[in-house]
Amino acid sequence: MNPADPALAGFDPTRVRYGADGLVPAIAQDARDGRILMVAWQDAEALSATLASGEAHFHSRSRGRLWRKGEESGNILTVTGIALDCDADTVLLQVVPAGPACHTGAESCFDAGPTAGAAPLSAGFGWLEELRRTVAERARTRPEGSYTARLLARGVDGPARKVTEEAVEVLMAAKDDAVAQATGAARPRAELAGEVADLLYHLIVLLEERGLDPADVIGVLRERHGRPGERNGA
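RE: above sequence
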């Protein structure tokens, strides 16, 4: 068996602990933002097909056969990573969906179900964790030619000054967008998105340079959330 994606090559399928029925639950998680898309079942055949093709395959209990997700709808799940839980009896598939994951047409099978205190649907911010890991790796290895490494080499002034510059550019792009909306002109949305992206990146680099975990920042936001009068209390 030769995995379609080299990233899957390190997974050892012999470690999976199947149930008495030969099945194991498989969770499909959006690799881009960490959102749970669906839960299905795999047997050894489905897992093998997944590793060999790089596309999520499951065992259909209702039809009693192997099925490739999206074989009829075209909404395949491309697998970019795979892991087992601590008991090796649950499979986690990190995937990039080609369309809605749910048969109802919803992006996630959990979108339309009953909820109780569930978090709002993801806007994709979870992907920033991947950027944070990359910045941390650059800080550790300081590879030649890396822009991140050059910023960090300047100490706090490197990323901090860039945060200031990028914040001003976000302001200018936002005002241009507002003028365009008011006048009916074409709105440069890509420009505003690009400037915000630059600001977020440099903020992450600044946190890395200062040794401050982004989780600390998230913790402050969570603590303030729901408090009337707080800046992010809503």
